[in-house]
């Protein structure tokens, strides 16, 4: 018989073993649907499933209904646009989420990285960052496979050859000061173009604070059947932000998209590709999988409306040449490509519209999620999209059911995300807890 003090000490050892057994060293941390978002009423005229309830009904086109800031969502519910949340550590919306995250699984990457675009400092020249890249910092050397084993690699390519993963960042496009010259490029111009060119679908990575000023355009993007993903609240380099600010970027993005569109994305893209394992781990625990790219058109650097000149600015001709090279040389390789394009300015829209017909002729053209067989990119399971192959997967890459046709009607169960060996971990935890109980019981006999 052991005394109670010894039993408690033994129990602590067993609990430590239980924690070790529960650590998914060879599988991914389980995810679950975000429960921290408010319950919002459905917006009138916004679809609640895909395919739509009436697939034969024509998709919307033409001019958008008029809306002004505050007509759909109040700005007072959100932080200032285009800026990281300055008071994130004391924000009453963020504090509860900080408590939900298991920080044992978030690397302590305390290095202050330079802002890739505005600093003018090459990431490779940052003297404060270790040369062995311990945090898989994409901006440093395009690392996309985390150094931690419990979150998946970034999605960077289309696995099938001759496939073009179509993605557009920084929307929805609107102009704070419309003019006769730039108004023709604001939405729904580009969405009408995609609709009129084989009803082409794409991933739209929305800056959430832009939705505040163009909510009806965002709703049009969803209603058209495009796959909406998070592109953060303020479009700042994520590795430069505190943990609380990173959480706030995701929270307010998910909240805005949920309030205006009624969906909760599982996908996100870091501005400038600036992500490391710290940010990835926070995103993953908030229900988001990281998507980057393997082809950058550099269209975001073209000087034009809403794009001021910087040291890294390029001409339209330069971006056009880059795109021409990708289109000409991307066929016949071992895999397809995810290409970075934007609905950011008049110049980016002109470039996208000029090349899309050629891309459609040469490649199987689809959203990056579709070419990676992700049929359900939202936590709302009523949205089921077309995919490249015959087997749908969750955003962690695991099979989630039977075959899926290209009409967006999967066979078998719907995707859900969980750790691959979570059952084994729970079983191990149960066995160890039984030993703990036995040890305490022995002390009391």
Automatic annotation (TrEMBL):
Residues 162-371 form the NodB homology domain. Residues 398-418 are annotated as: Disordered. This is NodB homology domain-containing protein. The lineage of its organism: Eukaryota, Fungi, Fungi incertae sedis, Mucoromycota, Mortierellomycotina. Keywords: Signal. PANTHER family: CHITIN DEACETYLASE, GLYCOSYL TRANSFERASE-RELATED. Residues 406-418 have a biased composition (Low complexity). Residues 1-22 form the signal peptide. The keyword Transmembrane helix does not apply. It comes from the Eukaryota. PROSITE patterns: NODB. The keyword Transcription does not apply. Pfam families: Polysacc_deac_1. One of its GO terms (molecular function) is chitin deacetylase activity. One of its GO terms (cellular component) is membrane. InterPro entries: Glyco_hydro/deAcase_b/a-brl, NODB_dom, Polysacc_deacetylase_ArnD. GO terms for biological process: carbohydrate metabolic process; fungal-type cell wall biogenesis. It comes from Entomortierella parvispora.
């Amino acid at each position: 018989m052991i005394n109670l003090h010894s039993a408690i000490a033994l129990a602590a050892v067993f609990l430590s073993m239980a924690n070790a057994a529960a650590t998914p060293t060879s599988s991914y941390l389980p995810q679950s649907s975000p429960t921290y978002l408010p319950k919002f009423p459905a917006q009138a005229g916004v679809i609640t499933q895909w395919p739509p309830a009436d697939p034969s009904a024509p998709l919307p086109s033409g001019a958008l209904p008029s809306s002004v800031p505050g007509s759909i969502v109040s700005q007072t519910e959100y932080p200032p646009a285009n800026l990281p949340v300055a008071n994130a550590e004391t924000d009453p919306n963020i504090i509860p989420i900080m408590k939900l995250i298991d920080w044992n699984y978030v690397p302590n990457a305390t290095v202050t990285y330079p802002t890739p675009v505005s600093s003018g400092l090459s990431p490779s020249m940052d003297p404060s960052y270790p040369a062995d890249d311990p945090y898989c910092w994409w901006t440093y050397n395009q690392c996309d496979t985390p150094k931690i084993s419990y979150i998946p690699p970034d999605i960077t390519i289309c696995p099938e050859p001759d496939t073009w993963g179509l993605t557009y960042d920084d929307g929805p496009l609107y102009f704070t000061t419309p003019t006769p010259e730039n108004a023709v490029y604001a939405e729904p111009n580009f969405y009408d173009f995609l609709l009129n060119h084989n009803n082409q679908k794409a991933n739209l990575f929305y800056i959430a604070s832009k939705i505040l000023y163009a909510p009806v355009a965002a709703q049009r993007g969803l209603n058209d059947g495009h796959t909406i993903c998070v592109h953060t609240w303020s479009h700042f380099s994520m590795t430069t932000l505190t943990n609380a600010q990173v959480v706030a970027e995701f929270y307010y993005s998910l909240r805005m998209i949920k309030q205006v569109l009624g969906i909760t994305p599982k996908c996100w893209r870091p501005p400038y590709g600036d992500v490391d394992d710290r940010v990835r781990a926070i995103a993953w625990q908030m229900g988001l999988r990281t998507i980057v790219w393997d082809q950058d058109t550099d269209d975001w650097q073209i000087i034009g409306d809403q794009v001021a000149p910087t040291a890294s600015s390029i001409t339209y001709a330069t971006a056009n040449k880059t795109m021409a090279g990708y289109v000409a040389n991307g066929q016949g390789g071992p895999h397809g490509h995810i290409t970075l394009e934007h609905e950011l300015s008049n110049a980016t829209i002109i470039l996208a519209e000029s090349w899309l017909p050629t891309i459609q002729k040469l490649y199987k053209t689809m959203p990056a999620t579709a070419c990676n067989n992700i049929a359900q990119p939202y936590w709302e399971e009523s949205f089921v999209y077309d995919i490249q192959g015959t087997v749908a997967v969750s955003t962690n890459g695991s099979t989630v059911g039977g075959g899926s046709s290209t009409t967006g009607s999967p066979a078998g169960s719907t995707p859900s995300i969980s750790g691959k060996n979570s059952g084994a971990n729970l079983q191990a935890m149960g066995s160890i807890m039984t030993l703990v109980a036995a040890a305490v019981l022995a002390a009391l006999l």
